[in-house]
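Subject: Protein record for review, amino acid sequence with backbone structure tokens
Category: Structural biology, sequence-to-fold work with a learned token vocabulary.
Format: Residues in single-letter code; tokens as whole numbers, each standing for a residue.
Body of memo: The sequence and its backbone structure tokens, given next.
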Amino acid sequence: MANMQLKRVVVTGLGAITPIGNNLTEYWEGLLSGRNGIAPITRFDASQHACRIAAEVKGFDPHDYLDRKDAKRMDRFSQLGVAASLQALADAKLTIDDLNADQVGVIIGTGVGGLKVLEDQQEVLLARGPSRISPFMIPMMIANMAAGLTAIHTGAKGPNTCTVTACAAGSNAIGDAFRLIQRGYAKAMICGGTEAAVTPLSMAGFASMKALSTRNEDPARASRPFDRDRDGFVMGEGAGILILEELEQALERDAKIYAEIVGYGMTCDAYHMTAPSGQGATQAIELALKDGGLQPEAIHYINAHGTSTPANDPTETKAIKKALGEQAYKVAISSTKSMTGHLLGGSGGIEAVATVMAIACDRIPPTINLENPDPECDLDYVPGQSRAQTVEAALSNSFGFGGHNVTLAFKKYH
């Protein structure tokens, strides 16, 4: 393996179902215009909850992608993941058939999987007894099912797995898919993250941890990364999927190439269940740069983890400074969670899509609601308005409960 010639890997397709748009075009336009996706919760009666706001996906109809029977047998997180995967495949114009099925794989991460189904079936158990539980409960609930069902609906028979690393899951999925193609185990991978955790139990649990914003009267301004007045993250839902492809194959089939993925850094804090140490984040950024053969000066943009929690934002700022040195003050950074909320395991997926689009379009999305900068957060977070700027190379950060840290590095394909 040491002497193996690593394959170059490019991004040829993108799919996104998000709180600010249900396809790639809507999502990207939403990011650039600073669209807010956060509003009072409509998916259940949240009147008794401490946090009554979320970034819900609006107007998504699973029947646009799936027949009624199939859609009914999926939790929402799987519906979103399969739909975004079908979008990405169509965007890549990649056909999966008997000739290449074994060479196309799927890795789709999620943080909590089919929580809504679990909650609903627990109510059935208590009210009507064990004999009334749905035979589809287990296959609807388990976290790997977005990846498994995507393979079933696309015919992809290559490597298939699921990353469950909390808020780093989507980024781990993309990084792991990159490694598989790099080393010749697949020619193409459908990869990213999906989540549908706007449910009563999930919202109550995160609120009980004091992780969520309680700015219920002003939802549009609740997610405010790097701002002095931030008070927690806002739950989001959706899915972001990339088609990664071996460069040779992409060129052979004359595919559109958005960007090249060149680096994957992955570490663990080994420190605390929920509080970041910062050291692991620094090392993840450094590893992604080293893996991609990139100097700090090459990085023009970072899509920050930027959760809008008191703990994350200054810690991430310090990590960027340590990893990039002086370049930290020259790089444009934004937290798109200011608009989409935090999709947990889905966040790495939609944020990688945003990072790739920043490179492809030379446009940097803003951080909205950054009105009173935290003195500890003193870098260039592109406040308020998007920016036209050449982006040769960019990083996407994702940090999850348990101390999981992931940084992905992308650059223009030349």
